Amino acid sequence: MEITIIEQKENKLFNRNEVKFYVEYEGEATPKLLDIKSKLVALLNTKKDLIVVDNVQPYYGEPKALGYAKVYATPADLEYIETEAVIAKNTEAEEPAEEDEE
Question: Which of 18, 63, 70, 75 is the most exposed place for a label (fewest CB within 10 A)?
């Protein structure tokens, strides 16, 4: 999976950077949103709790997708602006704790 940033602009009103990118995934399935998010964290040099991948739209018949992500300045800004559904789809599922039966 290869990510290429095509546009990055600052949105001062929402205290965030907005990033448009291409994802190329020759010979593999369309990458999961969380995999893309992890790669963007390293590429943009930010923290995982400050970035939200809004959408990823695959091209028909090509191993390529166009994506849009938002990088917030603080976690409080992210929680105030983004909906619960968007935050939930950008959060890794927690494994249920095993309970001891006695």
Answer: 75
Q: What is the DSSP letter of 61?
A: T
Three-class secondary structure of residue 71 per DSSP = strand
From first to last of its 102 residues, what are the pLDDT tens digits of the chain? Answer: 999 999 999 999 999 999 999 999 998 888 999 999 999 999 999 999 999 999 999 999 899 999 999 999 999 999 999 999 999 999 887 655 555 555
4, 94, 12, 11: which is closest to 43 by C-alpha?
Answer: 4
Residue pointed to by tokens 């969380």: 34
Q: Which residues have a Cβ under 8 Å from the Cβ of 46 and sit 6 or more positions away?
A: 40, 71
**φ, ψ at 48 (rounded to 5°):** -65, -30
Structural domains in the chain, CATH included, are: 2-89 (3.30.70.330)
